[in-house]
Amino acid sequence: MTAQRATRFPVMEEMTVKQVREYLGRKQSIILPIGVTEQHGYHLPLKTDALIATHLARRIGGRLDMLVAPTMHESFSGGGLPGTINVSPSTMSLVISDILVSLVSQGFRNIYLFLCHGGSENARALDNAVKLLLRLNPAFEHVLVALLPVWAFDDERIGWKKAFCEGDWHAGWLETSMVMALEPELVRMDELALDPEPLLSEQIAHPDNYQRAEKIVDDPMVIARMTQRPAIDVGVMGFPERASKELGERICEAIVEQAAAKIAELGAKADGAYKEVAFTPEPLIFDTGE
User: Fold this and answer.
1) Mean pLDDT within 117-133
2) Hey, is 11 helix, strand or coil?
3) Cα-atom radius of gyration of the chain, to the nearest Å?
4) Predicted pLDDT of residue 287
């Protein structure tokens, strides 16, 4: 007797062509988790953002009976410590654009980008790429694409909103607590380390303070070269010593509940027809010096 092969729904990469085809016959929605492979100190794995994206997206998909695409591990970090893989923001956005085109060509019509990696450059590039894709590609005429950053789902202010107010940006109590809840065996609190002062406090004050700017000529019209500060050895921005598994479980459950509710709300309203909405132009980039 042949053993029955079980496939975990809604995990797309473990399904077959037949199973995805059958899914498309009844539903055309999909969640695309987006993470990164980057430095997370000595106590968290490099895949922390992708790990969180994968686990939470699959929980959301299971709750909604919605397919979850393979997690995107390749993004722009900006960091330079060993293990960090930097894919330029433009390349990352083009890859995701190609993924979207591929999904739409198969028949998907509601696509939810579940963004679990911040990074100023990364987020801006992704937002711009999707806007241009909708603007220029007629295949998206009836397609809804929603960008859902994980930090938007914190109505109780126990997670991202609280962390950001405290300067807990990266590999701090928030992310450490979540990995403790999702894959505790990957957390190495016995190896916890922090960068020395004033580096740590400067990064807590603003997450982009891990960078330094250099110019051949110090003039406003000369473009600066941005690199990670060479004195950074660990790459933690926050307070990981405050983490707990119990807090991580509360945060993860709140994200899943709120994100699932938002996706269900958007899906119920999506009729495939674009309608004019309020538009506010971005601030002008022109500076006359006056």
Assistant:
1) 91
2) strand
3) 21
4) 65
The pLDDT assigned to 160 comes to 94
Give the integer Cα–Cα distance in Å for 96 and 73.
Answer: 11
Joined together, the tokens standing for residue 226 give 């941005």
Angle at 254 between CA 252 and CA 259, to 5 degrees: 95
Task: List CB contacts of 85: < 8 A, sequence separation 6 or more.
Answer: 36, 37, 38, 73, 74, 77
Asked if 196 and 185 count as a contact pair (C-beta separation under 8 A), the reply is: no
In the block, residue with structure tokens 């490099």: 46
Nearest to 270 by CA among 175, 143, 173: 143
Strands 67-68 vs 110-115: parallel, antiparallel or unpaired:
unpaired
Which ranges of the chain would DSSP assign to H, the alpha helix?
17-24, 48-64, 89-106, 120-136, 160-166, 173-182, 199-205, 245-269
Q: Dump pLDDT digits (tens) for 63-76.
A: 999 999 999 999 99
What does the block give as tokens for 131?
A: 């806007």
The model's pLDDT over 176-210, given as tens digits with 9 standing for 90+, comes to 999 999 999 999 999 999 999 999 999 999 999 99
153, 147, 144: which is closest to 126 by C-alpha? 147
Tell me whether residue 182 is exposed, middle or buried, using C-beta atoms within 10 angstroms of its C-beta: 0 to 12, 13 to 18, 19 or more: buried
| pLDDT for residue 56 | 98
Q: What domains are defined for the chain?
A: 13-269 (3.40.50.10310)
What pLDDT was estimated at residue 2?
47
Q: Looking at the predicted structure, is the pLDDT value of residue 273 above 90?
A: yes
What the block records as the tokens of 213 is: 């700017």
Q: Looking up tokens 């990696």, which residue turns up?
A: 117
**CA atoms of 162 and 105, how far apart (whole Å):** 41
Does pLDDT of 6 surpass 70? no
Residues 60, 66: Cα–Cα separation, whole Å: 8
